[in-house]
Amino acid sequence: MVKELMAYQETDAKLRAIELELQSSEVRKKAASAKKFLDGVNDAVVNLEKRAKELVAVYENLGAAHAEFMEVFREISAAAENADDVNAAGYLQKKADELTLRLSNLETQAASLSEEINSVLASFSQLKKKTQAAKEQYSEFGQKYKELKQSKEGERLAIEKELAELEKAVDPALMAQYKAKRKDKMFPVLYKVNGNLCGKCLVELSMSDLNRLKNDEVIECDYCRCLISKA
Ligand SMILES: [Zn+2]
């Protein structure tokens, strides 16, 4: 049983090599990075839109406050000019000066807000460009990856046919165990025992596991979860 699983794994290694080649290919990486960007772009747009709305609201409030201050400023200035009493005129002039300062502060705030709004708009347009570029990249390299995958298809099918043949000689429970680990991206799955250590992670095996190995059983390493057979 173990010998047959080992034979299966040797052929499976060819399949694994194809998978790795596809996975590490430049075209897949480029398609995947474009996809990742496109998946995240909606969040970025939502965040920018939210920020833009907040800024516009603040800007409008500032505008309203500015108009109100201007009105009061005009009234006070006119009153100061027309005041007969020197003290009253002085007081009103002082009020007008204070208002002038507050108006100038408001204007500074509005200018910096306007700058921030412009930067949000610039981010929008940059995001739009990047999105377009990512779409093009995804389409180009997605297609190239498809072609690369297609070019390996014949080889892959031949190996899978060979594996299906080899599988017939393997105990179904053991095969299921192997396949589950393989699916979890473990490879190789089956190791030979190394003295009384796991052949993969070199952890020491228990007496009961060693006895099971002697009886030609396949065990699972408690530590790294690989399958172990006798040497
Ligand atoms: Zn181990």
State the separation between the terminal residues, measured CA to CA.
Answer: 14 Å
Radius of gyration: 37 Å
Strand order of the largest sheet: 1-3-2
Pattern of helices and strands: HHHHEHEE
CATH architecture of the domain at 24-165: Orthogonal Bundle
Mean pLDDT: 92
Tell me what portion of residues adopts beta-strand conformation.
under 5%
- Tally of contiguous helical segments: 5
Global geometry: elongated
Hetero groups in this structure are: zinc ion
Residue stretches low in confidence (pLDDT < 50, at least 5 long) are none
Protein structure class:
mainly alpha
- Total count of strands: 3
How much helix is in the residues? over 70%
**CATH class membership of the domain at 24-165:** Mainly Alpha
By CATH, the topology of the domain at 24-165 is: Helix Hairpins
